[in-house]
Amino acid sequence: GFRGKLLDYYIEAFDGRGNRSRSEIQHVFVEDDGQGGPPPSSVTFSEDPRDCAPLGVTYDAGGGPLSNTTQVVVWISFDGGSVFTNYDMDYLGGGISECTNIPVPDNAPSATVYFENQDGSIRDDNSGQYWSTSIRDCDQPSGPSSVSFSNAPACDPVTVTYFPNAGPLQGATQVFMHLGYNDWQQVIPTQQMSSVTANQWQITVQPPEGAWQIDMVFHDGAGTWDNNSGQDWHFALNECQPPPVPPGVTITGPAADLVVTYDVSNYTLRGTVSDDISGYLRWTNQLTGDDGIASAVNPWVIYQVPLGVGTNLITVMGSNAASTVVTDAWDDASQTVYADGWQTNDNGGTGLGDWTFYTSTNDGDRNGRFIGSNDTIDIGTPAWGLYANQGNLSEAKRWLAQSLDTGATFHVEIDNGYIDSGGSIGIALQNQAGETLWEFYFTGGEQYYTITGGATDIGWTPGGLEIEVMLDTPTTYVSRIRPLGGAIRTNRGDLVSHSDMTVRLFRAWNYTAGSGSDYDFFFNNLRITHSEPSAGGTTSDTVLITRQDGSQDSNGDGISDYWSVRYGYDPHGPDISANDDDGDGFSNLQEYIADTHPKDSAAAFTNRVEIVGFSGDVLELRLQGPTTNSRIYELLVTTNLVEQDWQPDGSASPGDDGGGPLILTATNIHSRGFYRARVSLP
What we know:
By secondary structure, the chain is an all-beta fold.
C-alpha cells in the first residue's frame, strides 16, 4: 500500500518506569517494486475548459471498477452535481476512453463527472468524490488584448475587431480606435467603435486611396491607451490605387457648372494638378473681380470664393514652369549680434524688426531666455531658447518689418523637450495689437500638437519640426509641417477672426514646461519667402456657378429667399410666414409684403393716412410710413364703412427711397369718402 510513496516516521520507546523516548523524524521513499497492483482510475479534462467551446474528458480506468469495460458512459453535471447528463465515450484501448465534444452551457461555473458501464451496473465515482474542473466564462476577459482584422478587396471597407481581454482597456464602457495608414503617415484619431459584447468592439473603416497598411491603437477617451505593449497593431491592406490625375489643372468640385440659391454667397473649390504644375495656383472670378492664390498641391482646395448674384465665371490657373523662391526676410541665432547673449532690441539678419521679451517673474530660476548650443538640439546650433517652470511664462516676440502678404510664407524650426501636464510650448503669428491669428503648440498631457482650427496628427517629438505657414488668402492659411526625418503634413484653415487680420508679429513661448534642460524650448532659422513663377506655359480650368437673385421661394412659404436671408432666416428651413417675431401684430408674411423689419416692432406698416392738401378735384393724403421704394403703395376709398367696399383711387406709387412718409393723391373725389392705404409687391 506504500509503494512509490515518501514516508515520514519516528521511533518511540518506553523504559521500565513508563518514561517515553522519541527519535527525530525520519524520511524514507518506498520504491514501487511492481508488485502492488494497477494504479487507480484517473480523469483529465481538455485544456482551458470554457463556456464558449466544447469540453473534452479522458478517462483512464486503471485498476478501478471499470478496468475491464470498453463501453464507458460519462455522466456530467454543470451545476455542482444536481443534474447529470450522460454521453457515450470512445474506447481508445489500454483502459482509456474519451469524449471530446461535450457542449458547455453559458456561464457554467464547473463540470463534475463520474463513469458507468453501458447498462449502469458498474460505477466509478472516485470513491464518492467525483472528478471536477472549473469552467472559464468566455465573457470574462483573460490574457493580453488582441485584434482580429478582416481584410477586403482593394477599395472596399475593412473591419477591425478589438478584444480588450485583461489588457489596459478591460472593462472600458467606450473604446475608440486611433487609426493610421502607411506606418502612421496619415492619422485619423478618435474613431468610435461599436460594442458587440462586453469584451468585443468593432468598427468598419474605408481605407483611402494609396493605403497599403492600416495602423491602430485603442483608447477609452479618458487617457487610458492600449498600444500592444508599444508595438501598435499593423495589418497589410489590398492597396486601392487612385485614378490617374488628368494633365494640368482640373476643377473636380464642383464637377460641373451649377446653380446655387441666393443664400450661398461663397463656394469652396477643389481639384487636382498634375506633377508638372508647381508653385501656386491663381484664381479669378470675372463677375466680382475677386482673385487669389492657392498652393499647387494635389489635391488642392480654394476656400470660400466669393459669389456675386448672376453667373460667376471662375478660372483656376497654374504654371508648368518652376517657381523661384525669393527670401524677403531671415535671421538665425548664429548671427554676431547674439554673440553676447539674446537681448531686448537685438536685431540680426534682415527684413525683421527688433526682439522684445516678457517673463512673468524676475526670478531667473523660474523663467528666462538664452542662446543654446548643446548637442541635443536638432535644428542647428546655436538656437534661441526659452525656459519656464512653476507656473511661469517666458515669451519672445519679433516684429516683421512689413506685414505678411497673401502668398508669402513664414518659416521656422522648433525643437521641444518634455512638457509637464498643463504646460505648453509653441509659436504664433499675431496682429499689431498682439492678438493671435495663427498658432502651433503642444500642451503637456496631450498626445498631439495643436494648430489653429484643431488638432494635428503629429505626436509629441523631441526630434525637431520644420514649419511653414502661407497665407493663401487674407483670412486663410496653408501650413506644411515636417517632423525631422518624417513625412510632411499639410493643414488648411481659417485664421482666427479679429478686426485686424494683418500679420505683424512672430511670437514664441514656453509656459511652465518644467524644470531642467530637458524641458527647454528652442527655435531657429526664421525666414519669410514668396514665390515668383519663371517663364513657361500655363494651364487652366473654368467653372460657371450661377447665384440666384433671391426672388425664388425655396421653402414655398410665400417669402422670397432674399428677404429671408436679409433678416437672418433660413430660406430652406421651416415655414415662417405665420410667425410674429417682434409681437407687433403683423405676421412675417405681412412684414415681407410691407418690407418692414420682422424683428423690430417699431417698424410696422400702418395703412392710416391724413389729409395734407385739398384743391378742386385733387386731394393729397400723407402715408406716415415707413415706406420703401421696393414696394408699391396706393389709396383705397369707400363711401360706406359698414359694407367696406374699398376701391383703388388714384395711381399707385413706389415708396420713399429713404424710408420716409409718402404723399398719395386722390383724383376721384366723393362727397363723402373714407380713405386708407395699401402696400403690395411690385
